[in-house]
Amino acid sequence: MMNSSEPQKDTQVNSTMSDKEQTTPQDKPNENTGIHLQGHIKIWDPSTGEIMVNKRNAIHYENFSEAMALSIANKSYGYAHEMAFGNGGTSVDPTGVITYLPTNTTGSSSSLYNQTYYKVIDDNSVYNTDPQKNFMEVRHIPGAVYTDILVSCLLDYGEPADQAAFDNATNTEATYVFDELGIRSWGDTNTVGQGKLITHVIFHPIQKSLNRLIQIDYTIRVSALTNLSTTL
Length: 232
Fold this sequence. Notes:
alpha+beta; nine-stranded antiparallel sheet
């Protein structure tokens, strides 16, 4: 009797174990974290120390997410490559009141309102004419949950070549009276100026002329959402 009942017991045990294995929920990774992006821009004259702009900038999240994925996947495009300058971000009425347009951060084909100039800030690019003054660097503190990308760009005395001699323009829509700029990625067409806009900032008009330097320090902080106290 014992010999005939034990196989039945084993069958019941195996059946019970099988049911438990099928109904036990599988362990899942904690994916309730994410990435937070912040940008800050400082525009100033290194020769005088005058600070012209000191403010946050807008992130184009769609294009930035694609750029991050392309960079991590080690593709040949998608990484930050140029700083674009434009003069279409504001309007100034006869009394001097400035109206600021919203930043362009929606739609993959977004661009500056009216781009009039650019400089290559990728210091690994063959198109960068002065990588000592126009470059990017990554700054990270071990153990921190954020990493900073510092973009440094200098508009030297002779840039642009056809600029005015003095910063006394009365036309706020002149070609090199800048009121907007953004970072563009390197596009898949292998052509300068054809990449996607990944950041955009609007500010009061600033003229670039032969008699002044303009330095742009552009910081983008990439943070884990587990600790949002690490702000710029």
